[in-house]
Design a protein that fits this description.
The protein has 274 residues and is an alpha/beta fold. It is 31% helix and 24% strand. The protein is built from 6 helices and 12 strands. The strands form 3 sheets. It has an 8-stranded mixed β-sheet, sandwiched between helices. A two-stranded parallel ribbon has the order 7-9. It has a two-stranded antiparallel sheet with strand order 11-12. The relative contact order is 0.13.
Length: 274
Amino acid sequence: MAGRLLRLAALALLSALVAAPSAGAQQAVRVRSEGIDIPAQLYKPGTAKAPAVALFHGCGGVGQNNVRMAGLLQSWGYVALVVDSFSSRGLKDVCGRHWPTQADAEKRAYDIDASLRWLDAQPYVRAGQVGFMGYSYGGGVAALRAFAPRVPARAAILVYPDCALAEPLGPRLAVPQPTMVAMGALDDWTPVAQCQALFDRVATGRELLETHVYPGAHHSFDALGLPVRYLAGVGNRSKPGGCCGAHYGANEAAWKAFVGDVRVFLAKALPASP
């Protein structure tokens, strides 16, 4: 009986860890980036000062996975800022025929700089305690700043990132802040091998780079409720000519492991408690 109760308690703890909390207090804000007002949703955990994480979406725009993670960060004691890089630029979805170029990615990287500066200036954010998190296309953009920062950050998280976007950074890279990378082993949109080629170029700070590869998982393993499917028309930088097609869809086991890994990583790199 005692063993069964312990198992039930462990399952309840895991469910509490990965369940998306209620949205709580949110606020629509705008961040000035390269002459453009970028809309964002702000999540604050309470009245005390807290560290902050800015989140950057993938090629389909802000998704439920970004909102879900912002709610989790808020529940863990972090300020979270979900940045919408598309609407002010007249974009909705660039996964298909509007597949973003290298120049688009480098321009979008300024949104990371602006968001980090904006967060660091807020009275409810602990000074110098800011980080960023990018998904897919946003993860590739985040790689441009994780390996070549313009504004200091305490932590970077790249979620199934488009590592090909970091190719122009050069043959010898440095990792100046703790950086976590989360990838699906079966990802054929932003494949592990492409990211590993990037990591092999790290000459300084390799000990700050933490990688997690989740078995059986495809791209967008955190898109809960979405079965894995093949999208024939999406751009794919890992294929000859950058086209076309990739699998994506949820893997609940990978999602649960990912949430736990993010929480442990942030507890070390950007702790919520002073």
